[in-house]
């Protein structure tokens, strides 16, 4: 018998929301975790050449978000870790753009503050506007205690 603890989903809740947003924005033929592309995007729409990433505000050190604070303990380690993550993100975006892909990052705080319809409208606006790179995040600066990330 398979124990429930041994069954782990292949996608996160944020990635599933990203897929819902992408479909609502009209993207079709979505591919999960396409390892043939730099950075293995969470979702890729090859026909439109769009790579979609779901970024957790903490792990990707979202500069606009109060969820992305550096922990007080072992601060030098975390600062190096977050800088390495940001540098990797920049390299991946540059590589995908060089290959003719458009890159959109959906931040965790954006998912927390907006409906799927609002996020899909924002995504569609970025794509229709010809954006090569875009980010969707919460524009409301709120205290950490009001956020659930």
Automatic annotation (TrEMBL):
SUPFAM superfamilies: Restriction endonuclease-like
Keywords, comma-separated and alphabetical: DNA damage, DNA repair, Endonuclease, Hydrolase, Nuclease
Coiled coil location: none
GO molecular function annotation: endonuclease activity
Domain of life (superkingdom): Bacteria
InterPro entries referenced in this protein's UniProt entry, alphabetically: DNA_mismatch_endonuc_vsr, Restrct_endonuc-II-like
Family: Belongs to the Vsr family.
Protein name per Swiss-Prot or TrEMBL: Very short patch repair endonuclease
Annotated organism of origin: Sabulicella glaciei
């Amino acid at each position: 018998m398979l124990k429930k603890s041994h069954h782990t989903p292949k996608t996160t809740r944020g990635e599933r929301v990203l897929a819902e947003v992408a479909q609502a924005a009209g993207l079709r033929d979505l591919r999960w975790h396409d390892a043939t592309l730099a950075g293995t995007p969470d979702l890729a729409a090859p026909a439109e050449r769009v790579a979609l990433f779901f970024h957790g505000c903490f792990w990707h050190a979202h500069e606009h978000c109060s969820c992305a604070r550096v922990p007080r303990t072992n601060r030098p380690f975390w600062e190096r870790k977050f800088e390495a993550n940001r540098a990797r993100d920049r390299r991946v975006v540059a590589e995908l753009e060089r290959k003719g892909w458009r890159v959109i990052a959906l931040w965790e705080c954006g998912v927390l503050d907006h409906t799927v319809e609002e996020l899909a409208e924002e995504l569609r606006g970025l794509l229709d506007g010809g954006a090569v790179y875009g980010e969707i995040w919460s524009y409301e600066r709120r205290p950490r205690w009001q956020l659930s990330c």
